[in-house]
Amino acid sequence: MAFDWFYEPNVLITLPLFVGGFIVVSCAIVLALRPMIGRLVDDPKDWDRALAHVISTFGVFFGILLALVAVSVYENFAYTRDTTIEEAAQVGALYRATAGIDPAVGDPMRASLEEYMRTVIDEDFPAQQRGELPTASERQVNELEALVHESDAETRDQQVELTQVLATFDAFVESRRARIDATAIALPPLLWVVIWVGAAVNAVLIAFIAVKSRRLHLLVAGLLALFIGLVIFVTADMDHPYAGAIAVDPGAFERVLEQVIESPQ
């Protein structure tokens, strides 16, 4: 992943550094541009009145952009979380469904399912946290598919049970594919360019305000930078659903493994 430096450290380190750096840069822009504004502006009232129209118009568009991006990122995160929970539930349902088929097939399937769960927890999720498509659990899926096709039903009841197993297996495969595909979910790089350009323009516009008190000017710029920095940080942290402080973890698989597979029958 190109941004390992952002996602790997603890949030108690990245959050203060990111937001603090955002505030420092914004205040530095104010300090750099204040002397120029003082020399160029003859009538501060007219200047601020004209600048207010520019800032209000820009603020509307930039605010809408940040809101839409934040909502889109959260929807991607929620989708990833739901697909993970769905897959874990399908594995639990498949494990229980195998109890009604021929033990010669059902026992190996349950063993493969338990191994699959441990592989997903120990290998798939760490790979997805690194932004890599997981492949470690493919072997167990292939084994399960072979066992399902080897199943044979002699009675009507066995046919019903086998049909249920096949339907659950198909749903499990679809959920697994959705979880894996979610690894590549991210905002387009061009959209991040627009966000960063907008943040820079916002800092420059705040610096253009003709404020006599330098402390007050820095306070206004710092508070606005604090909020925008927090919004951008949270958005960037959720942009990769399996990495960062706000991430989809294997908790759903761990619970199914503990409560369904490892629990006494």
Our count of domains comes out at 1
Q: Could you tell me how far the N terminus lies from the C terminus, measured between alpha carbons in angstroms? A: 42 Å
Number of strands: 0
Major sheet summary line: none
Low-confidence segments, given as residue ranges, are: none
Strand content: under 5%
Q: Determine the mean pLDDT.
A: 88
Oligomer: single chain
Q: Helical amount among residues, as a percent range?
A: over 70%
Number of helices: 9
Using only CA atoms, what is the Rg?
27 Å
SS content category: mainly alpha
Rough outline: rod-shaped
**SSE run:** HHHHHHHHH
Describe this structure as you would to a colleague.
The protein is an all-alpha fold and 265 residues long. It has one domain. Helix content is 80%, strand content 0%. The chain has helices at 4-7, 11-40, 44-97, 103-129, 138-150, 156-181, 189-208, 214-239, 251-261. Helix 3 runs antiparallel to helix 6 and helix 3 (44-97) packs antiparallel against helix 7. It starts with a helix and ends with a helix. The relative contact order is 0.19.
Name its key features.
mainly alpha, 265 residues
Summarize the structure.
The chain has 265 residues and is mainly alpha-helical. The chain has one domain.
